[in-house]
Amino acid sequence: MAALELDVVGIGNAMVDVLARTDDGFLTAQGLVKGTTALIDAARAESLYGQMGSGIEMSGGSVANTIAGVASLGGSGAYIGKVRDDQLGGVFAHDLRSIGVRFATPASTSGPATARCLILVTPDAQRTMNTYLGACVDLGPEDIDGSLLDAAQVTYLEGYLFDPPRAKAAFRGAADIAHKAGRKVSLSLSDPFCVERHRADFRTLVHHHIDILFANEIEICSLYETKDFAAAVAAVRGECDIAVLTRSAQGSVIITPREEVAVAAASVAKVVDTTGAGDLYASGFLFGLTHGMALAACGRLGSLCAAEIIGHFGARPETSLKELAKKAGIPI
């Protein structure tokens, strides 16, 4: 039997998304900061869920969304994340496996329920996320399957994992395993509040352990404590092999020690929901990178995937990203 070969293995918070439309007044009444993510406990999750309007439940989690996008492009992926042996945990596992993603992390048999993210989408398509980590906090070094990391060209880590202590240990261990195998390690900064909580650790990680960094404009500026995007670009240059910085409608900028590649945003008829835009940009970029595409082509594919996801409700592709790429003239 041939050795296992994978494009990307993702490690992140395994959760189910609950999406509902709302308005700015509801956010204000709930004391929520628009466009950001807050960590909430079980009681707050139940309270907020009860006050949300009717919504849609679907498997989510930032890096899990990215791996789903890689699969939709025709790539090979695996995922490591912790769920409980409950109904939502079963739904999460089924959703990934049904699209060809390897997912074999043992479910917890006791403790907190499967995580969920309550996502409130305002008319301007901005999403405000409230995350109950639940079983995610039980992810530990023992859950990291070294054979998957050995087999994957890129191990993609979710910045949110820096909140639970045991997950943080798993995170660091995974980076070591991947590098010992001669593989690349990628990190998503995930959220500005996440950067604020872990700025010093993230800077150390990026400088010493990360090959490919993903961040949006707000996150990279927060990381280097500046309001000037150009200053943040200058600060990150040379800190890792590739820094991929997304800027919403302004497209993205790909930074290496030797070059800077600007990529335009792909057009979209109507922005419905920005949930998952960065996740799916990473899908396209990492697929392109692991298939030998030039950086500009990787960025273009990332932009196309992001455009697909913001054109509908939810953070998983509704149409084949592989077919969309073909229609756009991107050979994959």
Report on the structure:
There is one protein chain. The two termini are about 25 Å apart. The chain has a domain at about 5-10 and about 60-85 and about 135-325: UDP-N-acetylmuramoyl-L-alanine:D-glutamate ligase. Helices cover about 40% and strands about 20% of the residues. The strands form two sheets. It has a nine-stranded mixed β-sheet with strand order 6-5-1-9-10-11-12-13-14. A five-stranded mixed β-sheet has the order 3-8-7-2-4. The protein has helices at about 25-30, 40-50, 60-70, 85-95, 145-150, 165-180, 190-210, 215-225, 230-235, 275-290, 295-310, 320-325, and strands spanning about 5-10, 15-20, 35-40, 55-60, 75-80, 100-105, 115-120, 125-130, 150-160, 185-190, 210-215, 240-245, 250-255, 260-265. By secondary structure, it is an alpha/beta fold. Helix 3 (about 60-70) crosses helix 10 (about 275-290) and helix 8 packs across helix 9. Helix 6 (about 165-180) links the parallel strand 9 (about 150-160) and strand 10.
Question: What proportion strand?
Answer: 15-25%
Structural class by sheet pairing and helices: alpha/beta
CATH topology of the domain at 6-12 and 62-86 and 137-327: UDP-N-acetylmuramoyl-L-alanine:D-glutamate ligase
Report the helical percentage: 25-40%
CATH-level-2 architecture of the domain at 6-12 and 62-86 and 137-327: 3-Layer(aba) Sandwich
Q: Find the count of extended strands (DSSP E, 2+ residues).
A: 14
Overall mean pLDDT: 93
Instruction: Flag low-confidence runs.
Output: none
Keyword list:
21% strand, single chain, UDP-N-acetylmuramoyl-L-alanine:D-glutamate ligase, 5-stranded mixed beta sheet, alpha/beta, 12 helices, 9-stranded mixed beta sheet, 332 residues
